[in-house]
Write a structure and sequence with these properties.
It is a single chain. The protein is mainly alpha-helical. Among the domains are: 56 residues, no CATH class; 90 residues. The chain has a 3-stranded antiparallel β-sheet, covered by helices on one side. The chain is rod-shaped and about 110 Å long.
């Protein structure tokens, strides 16, 4: 689908099937003429208006970046590989454990028949395959842990969220000043003598005079 509009009437949208082409613009021109005939177009177009003068209306660009898309794709691939290895390990585990139990007869003094040895040799192939797939599975599982986190973030819409911006005031004076509680001012004014003190001093002076 492709959409066209007019510079004179941007509110008018003409939708045509297919991609932008001369044929598509001619179809849009036919729709425009039909609107004009029905009196639904208020703008008077100048003589000689051609389909080439249509303005294509393009869809807004997707906000998902290619890096985010690649991260999801890689995460799914890692999880798919983990699933494949897990199935393979499960298929080989039972038989491999049986063969592993037979390995101990090689370390005992009990006699072993040639048939048992040949059977054990054939089983070594299964044991080898299981051990290799199991190591790959353990390695893939450790890698898939991060893939699971990436996938969860994409499903919850929080993939590659920008870190919160820390805003710091550009002017140091704009920082709030701590309030310092000053001690109460000390009253340095000499304390006035009370009436009792005055009377005591007077009595002492009178006593000295009598002597």
């Amino acid at each position: 689908m492709v959409q066209y509009t007019l510079a004179q009437s941007p509110e008018v949208i003409l939708t045509v099937s297919g991609r932008d082409s001369l044929k598509a613009r001619e179809k849009a021109m036919a729709q425009l003429i039909e609107l004009m005939d029905e009196g639904k177009l208020d703008t008077d177009l100048a003589d000689g208006f051609s389909p080439q003068q249509f303005i294509e209306v393009k869809e807004p660009a997707m906000t998902v970046t290619s890096d985010q898309d690649d991260a999801v794709t890689q995460a799914v691939q890692l999880l798919n590989n983990l699933a494949t290895l897990k199935i393979k390990v499960q298929e080989l585990r039972t038989e491999a454990m049986k063969i592993r139990a037979q390995v101990d007869i090689l370390f005992s003094d009990a006699p072993v028949s040639e048939e048992e040895i040949n059977s054990l040799k054939e089983g070594f192939k299964v044991l080898k395959n299981f051990a290799q797939f199991n190591l790959r599975y353990l390695d893939a599982r450790s890698q898939a842990e991060q893939a699971r986190i990436v996938l969860d973030q994409a499903l919850n819409g929080s993939l590659a969220e920008p870190a919160p911006t820390k805003v710091e005031p550009s002017n140091p004076e704009a920082l709030p000043q701590a309030e310092v509680e000053l001690p109460d001012a000390v009253d340095e004014t000499p304390a006035q003598s009370t009436d009792t003190e005055v009377e005591t001093v007077s009595e002492k002076a009178t006593g000295k005079a009598k002597k």
